[in-house]
Every structure is written in structure tokens, then in C-alpha cells.
Design goal:
single chain, alpha+beta, five-stranded antiparallel sheet, 27 helices, 32% helix, globular
């Protein structure tokens, strides 16, 4: 069996990715240049060596676009001498060669392309010669599919070059939501919105450029909260600046129009401006211009000769106005600098000199932005059309190499891969998932047991459809030794390890051949995935005893003796691998040691009690230290037991029975679940110094539960259900468009069969009828907007369907299957929409019980139901965690299976015309964030939490790092902007609000420190923590209408979150130490007062929905009255 390591794969090929350049020319070639391989010439500068050439994009390659994350290169063929153009895809190899994956014909004359859509699975192209804008699905690079081709027929401009529409470039805006296409022939900047999933575009109203200017290319700069776009015009030789704003659409407002050489500087006759690029730090802009020949420079081949050169012009960008300030006007390196690129570090500029057949590399100072001397050059056959840096992550390139090794080969540790991998598909739940960018291999690399592995996939299945599987066997690993499976937050530490692997990490990369032997039928710890790969628990992959190692036998890892050593009577010794612990790991280890100590104490006390009982000493039993909410000890047979009132031990099932979450190991070892007791709830802020002065009345933390228990049930549930089925199609479509994105628990590929079954039963019986009615209820609700805006007394949308479904739920109570659990979950979702949390919790409890019965014996779950069970499980856990974060409720026990249930990977079905799409990105992102929120509660807010003031800083830093990694792991379509403007996408809006809510509770302990002791603000780390917390609070509240985006799943939770953040801000304004920090975050004091007033008004509108929200509204309103009174008195008090 081949044994590979990351280092071996990378060293085998030569050049590092960042040293490579790809160059296209009209000679029909893509040439690979290695910038580190140079040779002296007759000129001043060394020549770069060409190490590979490819002609698959011929005959007229015009543009290159590199998917850096997957190391796949796309080449556009302009088709100058053919009826149409083409789009080709290539796997980039570490030796500089390209392996063609796919190719498709296009409309004629394509000259530019850009990625767009969810995870960049779309490709948009501008066709100069074909007057066309086209879009393509590149989910499978070997099978590129056309999505749209739009032919333009608009009136053209006045100049001879404007004989037809000439779209010249396709660019994605910084929000990732709009495509911009400058059209040289019509003097228009065309704008398109698009559906990130289907890739379908919609033309928006274009922006008119100056007549005859010939728009060519654009570039964006993001300067804090402001965004600017810069247009370079080929025929007008100008740079036009626009301020970009976002409302219902993208808006461009022109702010200047200057010559291409800078304001007030002359433009040479016959010039033709060409490229425009903003530096990676958004501080500088570089433009190039052709046909000028204003410079004479030494020849690159013979320094005794002189050659003509056109210009490259350098500007700085004003932070406040977006205007351009001239820096430099320099020779570009030859005639016709058609296109150029800047590397990510901002240290080099590679210029394609079209008419000279040359590429030159110019030095650049990233701090000053100034361009320096030429560094090197390369002569390339033909006329140069584009040049780009290859700055792909080393990992995807090595993954391609890995896809050639036998299935089951262990390649790298997760820590190695996590360090170098740049673009992660999903950063979730203990695993990072990545599709190999080589459909000809049909490979999928995933991380079972902490390692990446190559497996085969069905030839008919696209890599993008293969969500890699999370290893469920981590739950089998020993919890009290080594790393916890959730150490340092599980996914963050394993996949994004910041510290390098330990020196002996290489030893963990080896795997004996017999470890891959298929003995799953004889080894109960072995399990087989659907694709035929045999998997092992974590310790099987890394630990074998010395005897088994020496005999090269498969070791079952049993302690104290493995099976072989027991048969041989040999001394069984395990060699534990070295592990380098980070802060998060140490936190978990100390927590586990504390629990182990408590267990040992319990065992000791139990033994003493037994000895006393045998000696006839009638002493009363001593209470055992509690673990979570139950006193747990270990009975003589090794099972956990609890001490009852009589002092005898009552065995309970370890990690196997209903409701055992709080009774032992599971609760103590998994910090990604909500703690039994914590102080994270909004009402706990009422006990904080200064905040309690604003709300002098003391509230029992149980008051919210009591209020919800006392509320009247829904009046409609007692009525005979009657439903209107005349508009069901609209409600079904609304559900799959607006609701299923939150819950992802209804299969669009089997929906029609469900609906037919319900229809045949007249919607009066059967689980299918219940599910269909609940989908109709939620679909109609999604069309009704924020429920708090409904007229008083009006029935909420969807209630008639919910009432009809409610009458069917009793039949689901005794059914213990996935569909029955699905009915209860959907009913709970509607109750969350109605802001009835306690009733929703009751239904979740029933769903939880059904899930636990199924998960206790996985054989009860058929393969066709596995995906549905996983989705219902995660929904139930997410809902329950949200409730437990605010209400003191019993835990259902469903969390004990949290490490054993896999992540959703995609519904399957026979319907080739599904009613909707199966979109998982938000759902997976929410799972990861909820687990992080739970870790925050465990580490910072749990009763006897590990984090105290003295050791707060490393824990907070680690949690914030994990939050950052969560954001950076989001697909582009979900990555929200941090600009302080309202977002239009509801999914991005909800994720942004959840992100800032998490940020607040991570840093909130620092606010408490200062409210307790004002002198704490003198500590820089405390001050910084307070600033971060308050900034996140303000950002959550400054656009209060954004909370409407989550009106389906988060109305109740959002109301309490608003109350919590407003109380925090009010308390901070009462503190002389914190008041200045708050006021720095807003334009003035009146702006802060308006934010608080908007919150009070908004929660006041929510108050009618639930008594718990009504109480929160009263508290916030009273607190603001007292705050204003206090501040007014303080302002009137004369200074001494």
C-alpha cells in the first residue's frame, strides 16, 4: 500500500503554486511559467523559464480564470477564426502541466469570465464578438452546462468601433449578488441579479456611460462601509468612479470622470485604455493604456537596444471619497499592455504585453503601493491575451495527486491539511468536507477519524453532490484520555489547527496494509459507508499495541488487553502518539480531569458505604458529588449508577437509554451541547450591577416558563378543522422557496408522492396528510410577513391547515418512526412561528423520544430513512438548544446522540421534476454555529464554568477564532457583508444576526468585569473585549427591521435577543468606564437613543405574541425610562 504525506506530494513536483504564471496567446497556447526558474540573457533582467504548454484551448485563447480553492483553471477561446468560441477546464498539476477535464462550445467572441453563484458553481462570460452574455453551470468541470445565453440588440454608440453591442467583461460585485458587464458597443454598464442556486440571471436597468466612451473593464474597492466601482473606457480613455449602494438592487452614482493618466494629466493621441485592477488591500488602483509608445526602455533581450513601451498608471484611493490620487506613470514593459494581474501579497504585477509576445513582472511595494523596477520577463509565442498568478492552495493540487492512489489510503492528518487548505466547502461538526476537482476520477476526499481519505463515487454523481460524511465513530473513542472529539470546538481545532503538527506527526501518517483489511463482519467496531469504504473508530486508525505492530496484525484496541494479546498471554502495551495541545484542547482536558476526579470520589464513597453496610454500621449514605443534574457513580459491573434516597445504587444505561443526557459521561464530555444550568439567558442580565438598578424589581428566572405555562391554548384547536385547498400550489411553492431553507426536513424529490397519498386520503388520515397540511400551513405563513404586523384579532396565516394537521397528530403519538417525528417537528416549527415556545417544546419532546428509540438501535432505520432521521435530529437539537438558552426546561436526552448522528448530505428520490431544490448550506451553517454557541455557554456561562476572570482571555480568544473560522467557511453565497447597511438576502441577514449574537456572548464576560469593578477597564484586553462586545450589540440593533428576515424560525428568540442586547447597551451607558466606548460606535448620543427607542417599539409590537415577550418589552421600556432619568440627573449635577 502506498504511503504518502503532504510533504512528499508537494516535493515530488517542483514549483510551489505561488511561483507559477499561466499565460494565453493567440498562438493557441496556455503557457506555464516558473518564476523561480530564470536564466541570464543579453538584457538587464533574467528570463523566466516556460515549464509547460497546452493547446487544448486553441485557437484563440483570450482569458483565464483560476478556481484557487479547487485548483481548476478555466480558459476562454475567443474563436476569432471559428463560428463560435469555447470554454475549457483543466486540472492544474504541481509540475505546471494542465490536464484537460472538459470543454464546451459557446457563442462567438468570449473575452472574459467570472465565477458566481453558490460556492462559485456558476461561470458568467462576456462575448465581445458575439454581442452575448452567457452563463454556465460548472459544478462538474468535466460536464459544463449552459444555463443562459442572452443576445443583445441595443442601439450602439456613435464611433466606428461601436458597430454592435460588445460586452467586454463580466465581474462579480463585492456582495456576490450582482454581475456587472460593461458594454463597449452600447456605452452601457449592464447589471444582472441572479439566483445563487439555479444560476438564472435577471437583467436590471443598465447604467448609461458617456456617449462614445466605450466601457471596457471595471474594478471594485471596498473602503470600510463604502464601496466604489471604477470603470475604464477604451474609446474615451477615461476612468469613471461610482459610489455603490445597495437597496432593493445595486445602485451606481457617478462621483468623477478623469483621464486615464489622472486628473488634469494629458492623454496621448491614439491611446486605448485597457486594464484596471484594484490592489488586494483596496488602497490602490493600477490602469494600463495601449498604442501610446511614449517610453523608450532597454530591450529585455539586448540591453544595448531600445524598444517602445506603453504606460501603466498607478493611483491611491481616497478612503473617504473614493477619488483617485495620482502616484506614478511608468513604462509597462512594451507595446500593448492588454491585461495584467497582481499577486495576493501585492508584491508583484505580471503584465501581458500583447504585441511584443512578452510577459514582464514588475516589483511592487504593498505598503506604499508604488511600482518598482522590472524583476524578470518571458518571451511567449504569439500575441499575449492574459496572464494570471497561480496561487491555489497546495492542498487541492495534492488532492489531485492523491486521487490516483488506491481507495482507503490514509494521506494526511487533519491538522496538516487544515493549515494549507484555502477554500473549505463546509466547516462543520468535526469535519471539513471537500470534493476532489477531478470528475474523471470520480473521487471524494473526506476526513473520517481525523484523516482525509480517497474514495470512489458513482460515475453518474457530480462531486458537488457528494457531501462527505462525518465520522460517527468518534463517539466510541475513549473520552477521558487524549483529545476529546470536541476538543477546542471540534471542527475548529481539527480542521483549522493554527499550531503546526508536532515533530513526530509523520508517524501518524503511516498505516499498515492489514489495517485496510475488510473485516467488518468480524469486528463490531468497524463500519461500512455506502460507497464501500471500511471505516474504523478514531483510535483504531492511530493506536495499535506493540505486539500487533510487530506481528503486523490487526489490533482491536481493547483495553487493558487486545484480543491477540489475551490469546497469547502477552503483555499488551500501547504506544500513544504525541499530541500537541492548543488552548482549547487544554480546556477540555482539564474539564475531563475534573469530571474523572469527581467520578473517582463517587466510587470511593460508594465503596466506603458498601464496607460500612457489610460491617453493620448504620450510617446514613453520604451524597455523591453531582455531575450535571444527577449524582453519578460507577457500579461494580462498570455501568453508571445513581444513588437513590435509600443509599443503594440503581444502575442506569450508559449512553443508551432515554433521557440520560444529564446522567453521566455524555454531558461531561461534549461541550457542544447546552449545559444543564447556565447564566447565558437574557433575564440573567437583570442581576448584573447597574442593570439591576434600571430594573429594581427582582424576577425569578423561572418566570418566563411560568408565564408560558399559564397562557391560553390556541382557540382554533378546539374547532372542527375546515381547510381551503384552492391555493395549495402557491403555498407548496412558497414552502420550498422560503421555509425549507431554514429546516431542510421535507424531501422535494418525494413530495409529489406524499401529496398524492394525502390527496387520496382526503387529507383526513395518515402521516402524509399531516405532513402536507403542515407544509401548507408553513408555506402560507411565509407569505404573510412578520406575524407581529397582523391586525389584532386576525387569525395568523396557515392556522386553518395547522388546525387540520393538529387533529391528526394524536395518531402520530404512538408511532415511533421517522415520519411521525417529522410531523411533530413541522408542527413545532409552526408553533415557533406563532411565538409559542413551550407548546413547541412539548412537541419537540415527543419527536426527541421517537428519535432516541430509533438511534438506540440504528438497525431500525432503513437506508431510505437515514437522511430524514439525521435532518429531524439536527432540527430537534437546534430547536431545543435555542429554548434551553433562554428557558429553564428539562433536557429531553436527544443531545446524547450528538456525536453519533451524521450530517445531512442530500435527499434522494425518483422525481425528475422536483417541486423545489434541496438547499443545505444554511442548515449546515446553522448546525455549526449552534454548536459553537453551546460551547460558549459551556465554557463561559455554565454553573461552575471552567472559565473564570483569571483565565478568560485564552478561552475567549479561542472561541472568537472559531467564530471567525465559521464565517470564513461559509460558501460565498452565504457570506454576508460587514458593511453597516441592511442586507437584502434573508438568509445572509439571519446568519449575520446570529453571528453578532454569538460575538456578544463570547465577549460579554468582560462587560460584567467592568460593571463589577470599573478599574478593570484599565486592562487592555478587558477594554478590547468590551469594545468588541458593544460593537456587536450595536450592529445587531442598528437596523431593527433586519430581524424580520427570521420571522419564520426566530421571532421569539429574536425578541429576547433584542431585549438582551438593549439591556447590555443601557447598562454600559450607565457606567462612566463604558459610556465612552458605546458613544464611539454611533454618530452621536441621539443616534444611540434612537436605536434603543426602535428596539422598544419593535419588541412592543411583538408583545402581543407571547406573555414572555410582553414581560421583556415591559422590562426594556421601564429600564429606558429609568436610564434617561438617571442620565438627565447626572448631566444636571454641577461638577466640583
Amino acid at each position: 500500500m502506498a504511503r504518502l504525506s503532504l510533504a512528499a506530494l508537494l516535493l515530488a513536483s517542483g514549483a510551489a503554486a505561488s511561483d507559477l504564471l499561466y499565460v494565453t496567446s493567440y498562438a493557441g497556447t496556455i503557457t506555464t511559467l516558473n518564476m523561480t526558474a530564470t536564466s541570464p540573457t543579453g538584457g538587464k533582467y533574467p528570463a523566466i523559464k516556460a515549464i509547460a504548454s497546452n493547446t487544448g484551448c486553441k485557437a484563440s485563447p483570450s482569458w483565464l480564470t483560476l478556481d484557487h480553492g479547487d485548483a481548476v483553471l478555466y480558459c476562454i477561446d475567443e474563436g476569432l477564426n471559428t463560428p463560435g468560441g469555447s470554454l475549457s477546464s483543466y486540472r492544474t498539476n504541481t509540475d505546471g502541466t494542465l490536464t484537460q477535464l472538459g470543454k464546451t462550445t459557446t457563442a462567438g467572441g468570449p473575452v472574459s469570465g467570472v465565477f458566481y453563484g453558490t460556492n462559485g458553481h456558476g461561470f458568467a462570460m462576456a462575448h465581445y464578438g458575439g454581442s452575448t452574455f452567457s452563463t454556465w453551470d460548472i459544478s462538474n468541470p468535466a460536464n459544463i452546462k449552459n444555463v443562459q445565453s442572452i443576445k443583445f440588440t441595443d442601439p450602439t454608440g456613435p464611433k466606428p468601433e461601436q458597430d454592435a453591442p460588445h460586452p467586454h467583461e463580466a465581474v462579480l460585485d463585492p456582495t456576490g449578488k450582482y454581475l456587472i458587464v460593461p458594454d463597449l458597443g452600447t456605452d452601457l454598464i449592464r447589471l444582472f441579479s441572479f439566483d445563487a442556486r439555479t444560476l438564472k440571471t435577471k437583467a436590471l436597468t443598465p447604467v448609461k456611460a458617456k456617449s462614445g466612451s466605450g466601457p471596457r473593464h471595471v474594478a471594485f474597492a471596498v473602503k470600510g462601509a463604502k464601496t466604489y466601482m471604477y470603470l475604464i473606457t477604451e474609446l474615451g480613455n477615461t476612468i469613471v468612479g461610482y459610489e455603490v449602494t445597495y437597496g432593493k438592487s445595486i445602485n451606481l452614482k457617478q462621483i468623477f470622470d478623469i483621464g486615464a493618466h489622472g486628473e488634469g494629466r494629458p492623454v496621448p493621441n491614439n491611446a486605448a485604455a485597457s486594464e484596471i485592477v484594484v490592489s488586494p488591500d483596496n488602497k490602490f488602483l493600477i490602469a494600463s493604456s495601449r498604442r501610446e509608445n511614449i517610453y523608450k526602455i532597454p530591450s529585455f533581450d539586448d540591453k544595448s537596444q531600445q524598444i517602445d513601451s506603453d504606460s501603466i498608471i498607478n493611483f491611491s484611493i481616497d478612503d473617504n471619497t473614493g477619488k483617485l490620487n495620482f502616484l506614478q506613470d511608468l513604462p509597462a514593459g512594451g507595446r500593448f499592455p492588454r491585461q495584467f494581474s497582481i499577486n495576493k501579497a501585492g508584491t508583484k504585477v505580471a503584465v501581458g504585453i500583447q504585441n511584443d509576445g512578452r510577459v514582464v513582472v514588475i516589483k511592487r511595494d504593498p505598503k506604499s503601493g508604488k511600482l518598482g523596477d522590472f524583476e524578470s520577463f518571458a518571451n511567449v509565442e504569439g500575441t499575449i491575451t492574459s496572464v494570471i498568478f497561480d496561487e491555489s492552495s497546495a492542498c487541492p493540487r495534492a488532492l489531485t495527486e492523491a486521487s490516483r492512489v488506491p481507495v482507503g489510503t490514509r494521506i494526511w492528518t487533519a491538522a496538516e491539511l487544515g493549515q494549507c487548505f484555502a477554500r473549505v466547502r463546509a466547516h462543520l461538526h468535526g469535519g471539513v468536507y471537500l470534493s476532489v476537482p477531478d470528475p474523471t476520477v470520480h473521487g471524494v476526499v473526506y476526513r473520517p477519524n481525523g484523516r482525509w481519505r480517497v474514495t470512489t463515487a458513482s460515475p453518474t454523481e457530480q462531486p458537488s453532490q457528494r457531501c462527505a460524511r462525518r465520522d460517527a465513530s468518534v463517539a466510541m473513542a475513549p473520552k477521558s484520555k487524549g483529545k476529546s472529539s470536541s476538543a477546542s470546538g471540534g471542527e475548529a481545532s481539527s480542521a483549522f489547527q493554527r499550531s503546526p503538527p508536532s515533530a513526530d506527526a509523520g508517524s501518524t501518517l503511516r498505516l499498515d496494509d492489514d489495517d485496510l483489511d475488510d473485516g467488518s463482519s468480524s469486528n463490531p467496531l468497524k463500519r461500512r459507508f455506502d460507497d464501500g469504504v471500511v471505516d474504523y473508530p478514531r483510535r483504531r486508525a492511530t493506536i495499535a499495541c506493540e505486539v500487533c505492530r510487530s506481528r503486523k496484525s490487526r489490533c482491536d484496541g481493547n483495553r487493558p488487553k487486545c484480543k491477540l494479546c489475551a490469546e497469547l498471554g502477552a503483555n499488551c502495551v500501547y504506544r500513544e502518539p504525541g499530541v500537541k495541545l492548543d488552548v482549547g484542547d487544554k480546556i477540555i482536558i482539564e474539564q475531563l480531569n475534573r469530571i474523572e476526579s469527581m467520578l473517582q470520589t463517587s466510587m470511593s464513597q460508594q465503596q466506603q458505604q458498601q464496607q460500612q453496610g457489610q460491617g453493620g454500621i448504620a450510617n446514613p449514605p453520604q451524597p455523591s458529588p453531582a455531575i450535571s443534574s444527577a449524582a453519578a457513580v460507577i457500579s461494580p459491573d462498570g455501568h453508571f449508577a445513581t444513588a437513590n434516597s435509600a443509599g443503594t445504587t440503581v444502575p442506569i444505561i450508559l449512553n443508551g437509554g432515554l433521557g440520560t443526557w444529564g446522567s453521566g459521561a455524555a454531558a461531561g464530555t461534549n461541550i457542544s451541547t447546552m449545559p444543564k444550568h447556565h447564566t447565558n439567558a437574557a433575564f440573567h442580565l437583570l442581576q448584573w450591577p447597574l442593570i439591576r438598578d434600571l430594573v429594581p424589581r427582582q424576577y425569578d428566572p423561572q418566570v418566563l416558563v411560568q408565564l408560558e405555562m399559564d397562557r391560553e391554548p390556541l382557540h382554533s384547536l378546539a374547532k372542527t378543522p375546515a381547510v381551503d385547498l384552492s391555493n395549495t400550489q402557491a403555498y407548496v411553492e412558497a414552502y420550498f422557496e422560503k421555509v425549507n431553507v431554514w429546516y431542510a426536513c421535507v424531501n422535494p424529490y418525494t413530495w409529489k408522492s406524499h401529496y398524492r397519498a394525502a390527496l387520496s386520503n382526503g387529507f383526513r388520515e395518515g402521516p402524509e396528510s399531516c405532513i402536507v397540511l403542515l407544509v401548507l400551513a408553513l408555506g402560507q405563513a411565509s407569505l404573510g410577513g412578520q406575524i407581529s404586523r397582523l391586525p389584532r384579532g386576525a387569525d395568523p396565516p396557515g392556522l386553518q391547515y395547522f388546525t387540520a394537521a393538529w387533529s391528526l397528530l394524536p395518531g402520530m403519538l404512538t408511532a415511533n418512526n421517522a415520519v411521525a417525528a417529522q410531523c411533530h417537528l413541522l408542527a413545532a416549527a409552526y408553533l415557533f412561528y406563532l411565538a409559542r415556545p413551550l407548546e413547541a417544546w412539548n412537541l419537540l419532546g415527543s419527536a426527541s423520544a421517537k428519535l432516541q428509540l430509533l438511534l438506540m438501535s440504528p438497525a431500525r432505520i432503513s437506508p431510505g430513512q437515514k437522511e430524514l432521521v439525521e435532518r429531524i435530529y439536527w432540527n430537534t437539537l437546534l430547536f431545543e438548544s435555542d429554548l434551553l438558552a433562554e428557558l429553564d426546561l428539562p433536557h429531553s436526552g436527544v443531545a446524547q446522540f450528538e456525536e453519533e448522528v451524521g450530517l445531512p448530505s442530500g435527499f434522494e428520490g425518483d422525481d425528475h421534476d422536483p417541486v423545489g431544490t434541496d438547499e443545505l448550506w444554511y442548515f449546515l451553517a446553522e448546525i455549526a454555529l449552534r454548536r459553537l454557541l453551546n460551547r460558549v455557554s459551556q465554557l463561559l456561562y455554565a454553573e461552575d464554568a471552567f472559565a473564570k476572570t483569571s483565565n478568560l482571555e485564552p478561552i475567549v480568544r479561542e472561541l472568537d477564532y472559531q467564530l471567525t473560522q465559521w464565517y470564513e467557511g461559509l460558501p460565498p453565497a452565504l457570506q454576508f457583508s460587514f458593511a453597516r447597511v441592511p442586507l437584502q438576502d434573508p438568509v445572509q441577514t439571519v446568519l449575520k444576526l446570529r453571528y453578532y449574537a454569538c460575538k456578544v456572548i463570547i465577549y460579554r464576560p468582560y462587560i460584567h468585569c467592568v460593571l463589577q469593578d470599573a478599574r478593570a477597564i484599565m486592562e487592555p484586553v478587558v477594554r478590547d473585549g468590551c469594545e468588541r462586545c458593544l460593537d456587536a450589540s450595536v450592529r445587531q440593533l442598528e437596523h431593527i427591521s433586519e430581524h424580520h428576515a427570521g420571522h419564520m424560525p426566530y421571532t421569539w428568540q429574536g425578541a429576547l435577543s433584542m431585549a438582551s442586547q438593549s439591556l447590555l447597551i443601557m447598562g454600559a451607558t450607565m457606567s462612566p468606564s463604558l459610556q465612552g466606548l458605546v458613544l464611539k460606535l454611533v454618530p452621536d448620543r441621539s443616534a444611540l437613543d434612537k436605536i434603543i427607542k426602535d428596539v422598544i417599539d419593535e419588541i412592543g409590537r411583538y408583545a402581543i405574541l407571547a406573555p414572555s415577550i410582553n414581560l421583556a418589552a415591559d422590562i426594556v421600556k421601564e429600564a429606558e425610562v429609568r436610564r434617561r432619568a438617571f442620565l438627565s440627573v447626572g448631566s444636571e449635577t454641577p461638577s466640583s
